[in-house]
Amino acid sequence: METTAFNFDEIVCRRGTDSEKWDGGAAEGLLPMWVADMDFRTAPCVIDALRRRVEHGVFGYEHVPASYYDAAISWFSRRYGWTMRREWMIYTSGVVPAVSAVIKAMTAPGDKVMVQSPVYNCFFSSIRNNGCLMEDNHLVYAGGTYTIDFDDFERRAADPQVKVFLLCNPHNPAGRVWTEGELRRMGDICMRHGVFVISDEIHCDITMPGYKYTPFASLSEEFLAHSATCTAPTKTFNIAGTQIANITVADEEARRRIDKAININEVCDVNPFGVTALQAAYNHGEEWLGALIEYLYANYNYLKDYFARNIPQVPVTKLEGTYLVWLDCAALGKPSPVIVEELKSREKLWLNDGEMYGEHDRPFVRMNIACPRATLEKGLEMFRRYVESEIG
User: Fold this and answer.
1) Running DSSP on this structure, what letter comes out for residue 347?
2) Averaged pLDDT score across all residues of the chain
3) What is the DSSP code (8-state) at residue 344?
4) Residue 13: how many CA atoms within 13 Å on its side-chain side?
5) N or C: lower Cβ tally within 10 Å for the chain?
């Protein structure tokens, strides 16, 4: 269904490339639609820039140039109206190391970090590994989407042990792109109770038509002064292996503490390919990104229609952002880890179970639709066969 100059229908063979998704534990014949990387080639501008860098042939320790900061600042300014400053930015090897370092910097062991489950599973390990406790403002599921229980949010934020709120914006796996009003309300509560906000915004560029991503720190000077924003081009351009991310922190003392934590955690160095890829993506990748979102949106609509016609027993959660679809499997009457294992053993389809994201109230599974349409069709047929074998 190619509609642009970029061929997202191309099947790129990833087996034998040491891909975590396709080679890391995936038996031959298993279709992996789990981990959040895409099965598309990255933007041609990124490939060309990396090719030129490889042809130089020397890959020593990397000096991050001014042009790197300029590229990131320009991207967020022209696309989202948020103009960062170079001195606010700290580079590191990924958003997970970034989140972990900020938690280390802004808490002490025994402090609480608030999250909103179901949420990205690495949040839990980052909190635990820093000796902190998790405080869960569990999202409310109703009508095929998730909302925030603000009374519960305020009650938990008022706990003097809660020092940090770890925000996922846009939210993985709930698929929400938080509105400006929701972000302001969460931010106001956190400011009122002295809670520092860490905003993981790695999925910021993947928003479906009709939805608008808003950087949390862009909403007020107070939010900017009491937050750290973690961003990367890696989900957007399918370059996670280049290991690059940025933390934007306006407050000088918070930035000093975070920079110290980055060095303590030994994630202060980045590789030359990440630096090159970020600049190429942010400077020249917008046309490709527009085409990508068009393709992902078509995949999502295809999936919704397929489920409505063939698997109406499994509701599809509304996807506002990311390329990760959250499927309500309550009709199957089994815990999500059991569903995932049976899908792997019986249909050779690999998805993620909802419990790993902290969703224990209802069985959900997560499906990655960032793949060629033919791959999606194959995965949907596998899923349909499994559901039909369970409930007819």
Assistant:
1) I
2) 96
3) I
4) 4
5) C
